[in-house]
User: Fold these one by one.
Assistant:
Number 1:
Amino acid sequence: MTAPKTLYDKIWDAHLVDESDDGTCLLYIDRHLVHEVTSPQAFEGLRMTGRKVRAPEKTIAVPDHNVPTTPGRETRIENAESRIQVDALDKNARDFGIHYYPVADVRQGIVHIIGPEQGWTLPGMTIVCGDSHTATHGAFGALAHGIGTSEVEHVLATQTLIQSKSKNMKVEITGKLSPGVTAKDITLAVIGKIGTAGGTGHVIEYCGEAIRDLSMEGRMTVCNMAIEAGARAGLIAPDEKTFDYVRGRPHAPKGAVWEAAMAYWKTLFSDEGAHFDKVVTIRGEDIAPVVTWGTSPEDVLPITAEVPDPASFPGGKSGAAKRSLEYMGLKPGMKLTDIKVDAVFIGSCTNGRIEDLRAAAEILKGRKLAPGVRGMVVPGSGLVRLQAEEEGLAEIFIDAGFEWRLAGCSMCLGMNPDQLAPGERCAGTSNRNFEGRMGRGGRTHLMSPVMAAAAAVTGHLTDVRELMAETA
Amino acid sequence: MEKFTKITGIAAPMPLVNIDTDMIIPKQFLKTIKRTGLGVNLFDEMRYDEQGNEKPDFVLNKPQYRDAQILIAGDNFGCGSSREHAPWALLDFGIRAVVSTSYADIFFNNCFKNGILPIILPEDQVQYLMDDASKGANARITVDLESQTVTASDGTTFAFEVEPFRKHCLLNGLDDIGLTLEKADKIDAFEDKAKQLFPWA
């Protein structure tokens, strides 16, 4: 009998090509997702060395970071540098014969949204992308993580990655979530508890009743931010919800192959008694709607709290907290709900899926943006956008005064025209509140789509449960 | 990749925790399709004001640290985005080694691919080197990969760990794609087996 294995162990073992005497491993990669910002130097490297893409059929490219989210972009991108990067991806996709969703394709969108949407992402796979939020795909029980550009080149050339094995960490969310509490609150609460380095060197497996109860969209939100906890990847064991989501997607297996895949996928769980190096347990009932107050995703507090005093933090974190509050323009002791916002951003690979838009629209229905607040909804893909239009969600956003935009990374990283001005404050559903992330001097508070919608209505950070009570 | 064997140089202290890759190289500089030329924008928003003038208080703008080759930094250096532009910018500026208590995973990997040595030491030793680096250009720190040691200006030496394969690649400036391609037969064999076992992949 073999020793009990974690889900991570199982996927790792199934992809091990070679292990050297010094413990360095070569891991086979099933899917390589590519975008325009972290790939040009890798393709250039292939050209310079006369190498080919080893498995173009397993390589999928899409422009997302740089692209404007306004009409006309398919014919011309104004910013010359962005245009050059997108043109380079067009050419690289053509020259190397990889799958490609150009800007003009309705299926274009954020790479981590379209991978699952098109059925490229399947349980048990290894998936990499030159983007740290690749962890998103872990929601399907796939080992998925971000890599640097040199590694992008390595995967293009060899379809493998040199890796050393991470440790196993279990994050269990027990029980039920309270009304108004979402997957985003779970993932932020975990980061708040363990810190942005709490998962370093580990692959996190999320489990427990509250995780099982989440939809696939919610699970993707949770895994998406595993990187913000420092983890190499986040994983959730596949179940019926996973299979239902995957079934029938364009690149999902069909017929007898589907049946064979299902039989295998059902073996993808952590065995009873498998060893975890670290275990963290949080009660679902203890998680409140949260927001970030600082410039690190670990700066998380329930919306009912007050801005903390930097002096209350230990060691090096105290200085960082002081710097954060200066940057954010906040004073210790002020109520989080007194923080006024200038902009609301709903979108990103964290919260740009259909369920996120439905949840935000539910709050915004029959309500308006607070005067002076700019609202922006950026669906995660062209198909999410279409579906939201068919479901009448777009109309709700537009009636509330939001801009209804085209798919892309948008304000989440401000590499495109969607940016904050210095000093502007945004309630955002994205994943990073770093200094300058949404534009130089811009201030970001991270939260769930319903919390962002609530802030949009009142013009300040707001406990969404109050608006829910009004509606009820 | 340039080899890394031993360097003796000026170390710049950055006693801030969670220095993220957006700080190291802000997104507006990721639009390049080259690996070089990013050094001038290293730590751009900390280093320059909105008019593009140098902020005199920022460590790398101070005369004694302008030629720094080593950074001594707070916990969790390089967290956030996977952008390899961060090590490219460090290298282009002239930084060849970083010393901290911990690094984000992807950044740590990216350093090794670019001839930069990220060194992990316990907190008290990082603090010792931080204090040493704070003395300015008079304090020259030595990093020796072969012997796996860091030596402060007063001769105090600390040993560090590094994975043997990474050390080997760094010491010899090896391109690991070339090394992996030597195992092409093993990759072929894996693919043949996987086709049978996992035809959907």
Number 2:
Amino acid sequence: MAKSDTPLLDELEKGKWPSFVKDMKQAAQKSPMAEDLLRQLELSYKDKIGHWKHGGIVGVKGYGAGVIGRYSDRPDLFPNVQAFHTMRVNHPTGWFYKTDALRNLCDVWDKHGSSLTNMHGATGDVILLGTKTEHLQSCFDDLSAAGFDLGGSGSALRTPSACVGPGRCEWACVDSLDVCYNLTMHYQDKMHRPMFPYKFKIKVSACANDCVASIARSDFSVIGTWKGDIQINQKEVLAYAVSAINIQTEVCDLCPTKCMEWNGKELKIYNEDCTRCMHCINLMSKALRPGKERGATILVGGKAPIVQGALLSWVIVPFMKLEPPYTELKDLIDRIQDWWDEHGKSRERLGELITRLGMRVFLRAVGLPAVPQMVKAPRTNPYVFFWPEEIQKEVK
Amino acid sequence: MPQIELAGKKYEVDEDGFLQELDKWNEEFAQAYAHTEDIEGTLTEEHWKLINYLRNYYQQFGIAPMIRKICKDLGIDMKKLYELFPTGPAKGACKLAGLSKPTGCV
């Protein structure tokens, strides 16, 4: 039996789970770029170091974003990946495709690139992996002809992303697909032509289950919620109790604010204590529904650890009605970006800037009132301080 | 290291075409290189204003300025920036100004 060229990568093919090595080997049958990529990766595993050079600036006409330059630091060994640029293609909102659109996309990439794709990574975009500099413009032209556009990269507004929302989920409190599409179209300039201190991500989840993890992964999170009482169908609650779940231990006891009581016959919800986390609704979806007045909570500041540590987004608008054309939402985004762009240091994310200058300064700059829902860690020291002029001296 | 020949002189550049020996920059380099960044014809006064601004800032601070600062200091907007340099300020303008390749995140 012939000795494998990639013994270390071969290990990743073992087991029951899908393997990217298997996919790359399949692509390598017809793509010399994919073949060299495999061999370079094997060397990286052996040397315990990545063999891509740092950075690379390439692009297409009129755009400052959407293409990420990649060069091998061993072009002598792997000439077919000497240049191996990534193209980020804006995904259709909610990742709904027709098969012919996918076939078109793959045909374009077979023609111009390595044929390897990553659908979909953390950004949400269609990631097309590996093409040469001289193919960038023609590939972009073909993508445009097929109805696709590039997404955001670098210090730009990144491609907005949303959960499938009302497309497949009956618990959606906002039309996450429409919000995302509308913002994407409205902010084309900020996405294609980087102008910020660093990246800015917007993600839209239609309910607190937060299927796009907007709270952890975006500078500006829109999360669907409701006002008023959770709708209860007591008959269905009883049916759950009889057949499926232990309502006391699985629903009431696990409610984060303990806002529910179960007496064996009826479920009582103290809505004033509910934080609308969706736990009970998830467990008893036939019996409970979100309240009737729907909208979204707006949070800011989430990010993964790169320059500084990870942050979760925190609430700045407890409830906002979201209806087209989303003027209030866009105005808020504009005010926030303007303040961040003006005051942010290079590579400083929004959450880091708020931490550095203070929530009090941020709220005043974007014109939002301080409200109790903003308190991030209740019963610890408050982080919103009074302005000097708000403190009146006691006159005797 | 790749080499390019412009107006009869040879220059060392990186794989993206950024000048490697920054002290070799001269105006002929910028003019002769402009067509590779989708700029047709002669560089205008507006091009030079931006190129000189970038060079002065780089000499003073050792990095390229942030986009907002460019726009504010020169009184131009993003649209104008891309009209002047269709491949963008980071790629087109910095390259012609002979700055080292800007680093940024992907």
